[in-house]
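lol so apparently i was supposed to do this last week
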Amino acid sequence: MFPAPTSTVETVDSVMLYIVAISVILLLGITVTMIYFVFKYNRKKGHEPQDIHGSILLETIWIAVPTVLVLSMFYFGYEGFKEMRMDSKDAFVIQVKAKMWAWDFRYDNGKNLDTLYVPVGRPIKLELQSLDVNHSLYIPAFRIKQDVIAGGKINTLFFTPELVGSYDIACAEFCGLNHSMMYTKVVVLSKDDFASWYEAKKDSSEVQNAGIVQ
Amino acid sequence: MANGAAAVAEKTFYEEGTSSRKGILGWLLSTDHKRIGLLYLGAVGSFFIVGVILGILMRLELIAPGKTIMEPQTYNAVFTLHGVIMIFLFIIPGIPAVFGNFFLPLQLGAKDVAFPRLNLLSWYIYIIGAILVLISLVLPGGPLDTGWTFYIPYSVRTGANVSLAIFAAFVLGFSSILTGLNFITTVHRMRAPGMGFFKMPLFVWATYATAWIQVIATPIIGITILLVILERVFGVGIFDPALGGDPILYQHLFWIYSHPAVYIMILPAMGVVSEIIPTFARRTIFGYKAIAISSLAIAFVGYLVWAHHMFVSGLSDTSAMIFSLLTFIVALPSGVKIFNWVATMYKGSIDPKPPFIWVMVFIFLFSIGGLTGLVLGSLATDVHLHDTYFVVAHFHYVMFGGTGTIFFAALFYWYPKMFGKMYSIKWANIAAALFFVAFNALYFPKFIMGYMGMPRRYYDYLPEFADLQLISTIGSWLMGITMIIIFWNLIHALLKGPKSKENPWGGVTLEWHTSSPPPLENFHVIPTVTHEPYDFSQLKEMKNYESD
Ligand code: HEM
Ligand SMILES: [Cu+2]
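anyway here it is w/ copper (II) ion bound
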């Protein structure tokens, strides 16, 4: 496997693969059977149609088998979800404020900027708050998102970055005129780079360049 | 009794109306369910065309990154209007109001619906609602730009004309409730002698289950809309946090209606499928009771899954788990239907005429829609895909590939009955093939874009999506061409088409036991039902069927 930017990515992709694989089998099964019947029992062939009213056995099979399949999908989906929602005591907490149409990240030491910087390998906890309407913080590369709700409610988003690099943050809840321009970046720095960035008084753009070295 | 209608020259419902008035007033004041069905067809069909044009304009804007033909504010208004028209003016009324009205009484062996005047009133309420939508577009403030979901607080903060537009949805709701009420009563009170519940055609069952949802769920959106208006106009804090309200409460109320509403959209279509397959396979439906009961199961379990639209809104993890589980459960009855439909083709005598071809297209597209619903019902994947193009693809596969496709299938199936004319079979088949290609070109790329992280309701996008967006736009042009072929075929047939046979497909449900088009009160003699709905042994006795 490719190294993934967070462990969630593999989890989500494998649940996806599982559901899609079963779905493709079902879809092909249904489609091929249907097309086969249309040729096999075509009126041109002159078969006498037979009135078959149903079969308790078949009805039971095609309720029972899908039930097992969907319950397994549910189970894997839920397990993956629990993993995403795992809070950690030593998580690094960052306050996020969303407004039309920008993001604002604030650190405990008072650092405050519009790009999210995080250290690699450390659980991160974002506390999300909106200053106006609903937004949604979405990091496609990490396969996670969480709505940012207007009013007092603070939603949380957890992730543990595992690859140094820079990834898109998008807004996924419609928020008006420039909804589609509400992009920023999450920059994952090595532990040392992050420590020096965090302590330094340098302006953020300089560090941003330093961050994405490879 | 199963005799075909006597082919004596008898006035059709076109020639003889319920009121003595002639011309256009004879239609606008008619309480005949068939005329009202056609009034709906005109209105619903027109709005559908407008919605399609808006969709094609959106796709044109999205053909390349950056601005192409419109400003972001215009784009936001266009996708909102597209959504509002397609949901409230096309797909919710669509099949029940057009085909339900026309065929429910015919399939039950009744002269009309239980409350014919209420039925006409429902149409007027629909038209008033539609006019209010149009007025809201031109009033100061500008067209609604909130998306069809009207989420608060954006819908309280925007300068656009929200109150009137959502009031229109409120009004439209009444049309839906009254139609539902009328159908429930009709099914209970107006069945022909001998027609027990389990002798009703499955389209009747589906429309009946739908009617219950219309009656029970629609008031919730009505009240929610009134609360929003109260909030916007009088500053009462209910949903808006600035006034001390709770925006999440709005989302709950909205989806408590709007999720059951997706079953209002799909159940009647499933009913039509259960009519078309037996007719063209010329054998009884497989699993009649399973299909009938699964409609009711969908209608009732469908109330319990609304919060799957809110998995990332800050719902507790436990609620998310429960709603995900229930969502998977509600998928099962739909699966049961698909398996029974395919089984109905087994050992049939299949004549794949256009309605049947359209049903095959439906089964493929709707299966994709349903199966991708499983991806969205699963929590881990939904967190990633919620509010992305994956969802846009999913609901177009379900609503357009599902219900929309069946709207056409129903038109092709019942066209000879409704109009007494026949369209070009060849062009109906070409349209089905083209539709299949166009549809997948238009929407399949959206699944991929969604998984790549393309959010929905975006005016602009990152360069990495450009190729797939372009394919989708080309698909929208093909779709436009397909629509032109369909409408041209049907309108041409109306004006110049050959007269159709009375019972061209060899259907045996009661609507085929009367003349085409039917007379004012449907049947010369009210039939007595002795057969099961899909018993094709009757065909031999039906005088109006000439085998080819
Ligand atoms: C040629 C036909 C169509 C085209 C080209 C089209 C295209 C689109 C596009 C581009 C969007 C915006 C996606 C986004 O970024 O959020 C959209 C949204 C939507 N479409 Fe369609 N569509 C078509 C037909 C339909 C039909 C038949 C229905 C319903 C039966 C439908 C229902 C909707 C709804 C409900 C939305 C969501 C609007 C919102 O986000 O508020 N569309 N469509
Ligand atoms: Cu936003």
